Amino acid sequence: MQIYLPIAELPVNIFMILSMGGAVGFLSGMFGIGGGFLLTPLLIFTGITPAVAVATVTTQVVASSFSGVLTYWRRKSIDFPLAFVLLCGGIAGSAVGVWLFSLLQAVGQLDLTISIAYVSFLSLIGGLMLIESVRAMLRSRSGKPVSLRRPGQHNWVHGLPFKMRFRRSRLYVSVIPIAVLGITIGFLGAVLGIGGGFIMVPALIYLLRVPTNVVIGTSLVQILATMAVATVLHAVTNQSVDALLALILMVGGVIGAQFGARVGQHLRGEQLRALLALVVLSVGLRFAIDLVLEPVDLYSFSVLSGGGQ
Predict the structure, then answer these.
(1) What is the mean pLDDT of the chain?
(2) What is the 3-state secondary structure (H, E, C) of the chain?
(3) Which one of 103, 153, 206, 267 is separated from 133 by 20 to 30 angstroms, measured CA to CA?
(4) Residue 30: left (phi > 0), alpha (psi -120 to 50), or beta?
(5) How far apart are the C-alpha atoms of 176 and 203, rounded to whole Å?
């Protein structure tokens, strides 16, 4: 069953898009991630332009994050002051990211930049995750405990100035690394269409020692607000948000997440991280192959902003 996407300007199979959203939702429910860094490449592989894919996925991330925020808010597992500092940095990062996005689109280098960024980013993240998870599994098989730092231990981050007290997280730390983390996530979300939870959650736990019972809900608040800002900026600045595509992806994602959450409960943490690392590396490899293979159409025509003859 074909359906025409008005912003993407191409017909797609609605069941294929639903399946795609369901598959990413399944992985999101299994691994506890937003899934934007997987959904954006999949849309690009189906022929949707990177500009529309990135902007539309921010909308899908907003929807999935909102449902999670409601759940953690009812459990009182959100540190709102911490989320506010992350949000301030995230909004600034989103604004810079959308500006760079528009600039690259204007000069005709957006597609290449996104592809190279995804190859580098996914290869780095996937490689590090795979190494860490394999080491954890080897230690577990040998009967050795997985070495984790205790929450009470401090590192160089705790020696920075401009400290602020976060009562829910029982922290007294500098706002500098928190703001920088928010800026980074906001920037990546606007440029690459990723929520960034798979970066933010480990950073909050291991660098800032945020308790695990509040870190996910707090992260989701920042992702929700930052991606909402990015969605509005993309819609106003680039007119590249396809609402129909986003709606189909949301429906599939909600259904898939329910099944993924059930499967994830039966796997150990290191197994989940290893599987996720393999998925991330596979997507990065696909991008790398597309960069080196000769395209079907050697030449393409596009209208760049500026109105030159």
Answers:
(1) 75
(2) CEEEECCCCEEEEHHHHHHHHHHHHHHHHHHCCCCHHHHHHHHHHCCCCHHHHHHHHHHHHHHHHHHHHHHHHHCCCCCHHHHHHHHHHHHHHHHHHHHHHHHHHHCCCHHHHHHHHHHHHHHHHHHHHHHHHHHHHHHHHCCCCCCCCCCCCCCHHHHCCCEEEECCCCEEEEHHHHHHHHHHHHHHHHHHCCCCHHHHHHHHHHCCCCCHHHHHHHHHHHHHHHHHHHHHHHHHHCCCCCHHHHHHHHHHHHHHHHHHHHHHCCCCHHHHHHHHHHHHHHHHHHHHHHHHCCCCCCCCCCCCCCCCC
(3) 153
(4) alpha
(5) 14
Q: Which two tokens stand for residue 102?
A: 């528009």
Q: Dmax over Cα atoms in the chain, in whole Å?
A: 70
Instruction: Provide the token pair at 195.
Output: 């929520």
CA distance 151 to 210: 8
pTM, 2 dp: 0.67
273 half-sphere exposure, CB direction, 13 A CA radius: 18
d(CA 304, CA 116): 21
What confidence tens digit (pLDDT) does each residue in 113-156 have?
877 877 787 788 778 777 877 887 777 777 665 554 444 455 56
AA letter at 157: V
Orientation of helix 36-45 relative to helix 110-141, angle to 10°: 130
